Amino acid sequence: MSEQQRILEHPVLPVTPGETVTFYWNNEPVEGRKGEALSSALIAAGIAAFGRNAHDHAPQGIFCANGQCSKCLVIADGKPVKSCMTPLREGMKVNAADDLPELPAGGGTGEAAGIGAVPEVEVDALVIGAGPAGLSAAVELGRLGIATLLVDDKHEPGGKLVLQTHKFFGSVEDSQAGTRGIRIGRKLAEQVAADPHVTVWPDSTVLYVYSDRKVGILRDGKYALVSPKVILNAAGAREKSLVFPGNHLIGVYGAGAFQTLVNRDLVRPSRRLFIVGGGNVGLIAGYHAIQAGITVVGLAEALPECGGYKVHADKLKRLGVPIFTSHTVLSANGGERVESVTIARVDERFRPVPGTEQTFACDTLLVAVGLDPIAEFTAQAQAAGLPVFSAGDAAEIAEASSAMFNGRIAGLAVARALGAKVEEIPAAWQAKAEQLKSHPGKVEPQVFPEAEEGVMPVIHCLQEIPCNPCSTVCPTESIRMEGDPLLGLPRYDGRCIGCAKCVLVCPGLAVTLVDYRRDREMPIVTVPYEMSHVPLAAGDKVHGVDIDGNELGEFEVAALQQNRENLTRLVRLRVPRALAKRVVSFRLQDQAVVQPLPAAQIAADADNQAMACLCERVPAAEVRRLIRSGVTDINQIKAITRAGMGACGGKSCDTLIRSIFRQEGVDPGKIVPGTRRPLFVEVPLGTLAGAPGAGEGE
After folding, report:
1. Which end of the chain is more exposed for a tag (fewer CB within 10 A), N or C?
2. 5-8 contacts: CB < 8 A, separation 24 or more?
């Protein structure tokens, strides 16, 4: 086992080595952790290529780690499986998916011997997805005494909450703001587990909502049918990708896959990371990478400003990550895996500007360009005439704090549909739901308090976002929200006692404490610190920076304090009076490690190197040629090129093909959507028939 690929120390997550087991990769013994995802065990062992594509024999690795694509396919104990969804067992024999296993000699007997009855279950409410929305809805349904079945395809409930080491935004009352996502997920899961009215099926994948109003579910490899009275679709979303040369290389990851590796499985898949996409997902993933000891060499965002919260972007800048707005990725470069990435500035029509290309050495490109709701279950239920509701990302892409609150509302709506006595949902709830999913507002100029005596918080939060824990925890009520109590900007106006609760609770790490009481000329500035790979001690010198990451000087660490409950360290710096209010943090990454290479690498014949369908290896040029010839039907493109006929069922390439339509200026209303495959994931036919052992690879 390559311990260099394991995260052995983390500032937030407990590192507790699990039971070690031996498995076999291409007949060679390898060690992994029992029960972890097979893909994580392989990457931890230094194995990044899981097989070769049948069309061009290029190596394939992981992309989504969520069972949505097929890049991580391997042969485990003779059966093709998605390694990201397969738990590791002792003695498992795993082979690269270069060739599918041969069918048994002689074929079938044509008899139905051994076919068993498929178990059927009736339930009032079926909740698909145990993420923040599904768990919150299940809590409400259980509280009302409604028989609820909560189904999720992961072993542990929580969805993306399991991956979130950062503190949440929103309000303390409605979304547990100031608490780390992993803790929120555990709390919700514990509430659900304690409710006798809610049954949880982990490791269970919903396959389809049939026309007879039954729902097919693959549970622990065995098939079952569920007959619900009402469905709540809280299945979340799948990651989008981009069309660019090299988008098929090993090392091109979706943000969720990267966070799954570093935050759930404590596997370090990268040394040098570049990010494309400046929404909250990309910005947060960059912060998580640095927590895992990974160098983030840059982030590119096509818009003039990052679409995520300014405080998230500011955190990266302060740590030493360059952010390139109005830039796009031109190519991922390398033979079989990513070795560098080339970006360029874009004009107002998002076209690359020649001569602005820069290439950065990296081994991983993290693609964080948005999500597509998993909405097919909603459409299937509607077609079957089943009452159905949606919540979380399956309804609308938003923050997890919004998903939790909207999940509560959806749970009450489901209960009302089942005839439960539920009071009318207050108008204030609906208004709060809209606020929690609101986009970042305007950015105000920074105004520093004039006083230079005593102790006071300095607030570096300048953008209207749904967040107010700093005002909630202040024991003297000296921090108030200006304007709206949730969306307003926090202002200090009162008497500070120096407790630093506001510094500890702020999700954006955007509050510092300036203390003039002992030395007015060299006051103590308290800043939050959530890293462990760069150790600090009193007497050390650090490079203090302002809100934009500009260096202000070298300052001495006066003291450190660890908060055991919050898991945030408070670092106290001695700073000259003229700079004290401007210091927000200190830089970790040396600027020499984030510089571009001397010469930019520009891909030749780029459109033929960019893949529109990663499974079938259909070049973007081929799809573009059909669109220019007048084809607007995605099904026709599929019939001609095979784009969408691969193992992922068209889940990845649909977004890529639509992006090419957009580049070609085709009206979205004229595009005929592709027909979805009837099942959500691929399933052996024997499993659907209830054949004994079909779920175990027989």
Report:
1. C
2. 5/43, 5/44, 5/45, 5/46, 5/267, 5/268, 5/269, 6/44, 6/266, 6/267, 6/268, 7/262, 7/266, 7/267, 7/268, 7/292, 7/293
Distance between CA atoms of 575 and 558, rounded to whole angstroms? Answer: 10
114 within some domain: no
273: which 2 tokens? 């990371």
Quickly count: other Cβ atoms within 10 Å of residue 504's Cβ: 24
Residues 39 and 127 in one domain: no
pLDDT in tens, 652-662: 899 999 999 99
Edge-to-edge strand list for the sheet holding 511-515: 455-459, 511-515, 524-529, 569-574, 551-562, 541-545, 585-586
Q: Is the pLDDT of residue 165 over 60?
A: yes
Q: Is residue 662 helix, strand or coil?
A: helix
The domain containing residue 388 runs over which residues? Answer: 120-237+374-436
Considering only CA atoms, which of 316, 323, 333 is closest in space to residue 276? 323
Q: Decide if 432 contacts 565 (C-beta within 8 A).
A: no
Instruction: Give the whole-angstrom CA distance, residue 68 versus residue 615.
Output: 12
Residue with tokens 């967040």: 467
Tell me, yes or no, whether 319 lies in a domain.
yes
Is 449:581 a contact under the CB 8 Å cutoff? yes
Q: Which residue, 186, 65, 164, is CA-closest to 399?
A: 164
Question: How far apart, in whole angstroms, are the C-alpha atoms of residue 620 and residue 603?
Answer: 14
Token pair of 371, please?
């999500």
Polymer length in residues for the chain: 698
pTM over 0.90: yes
pLDDT grade for 17, boundaries at 50, 70 and 90: confident
For residue 373, what are the contacts with CB-CB under 8 A and spacing of at least 6? 237, 390, 393, 394, 395, 396, 397
What DSSP character marks residue 393?
G
Assigned domain for 620 exists = yes
User: pLDDT tens, 75-132?
Assistant: 999 888 899 999 999 999 999 988 665 665 655 544 445 566 788 999 999 999 999 9
**What's the CATH code of the domain at 619?**
1.10.10
Summarised one tens digit per residue, pLDDT across range 594-617 is: 999 999 999 888 888 999 999 999
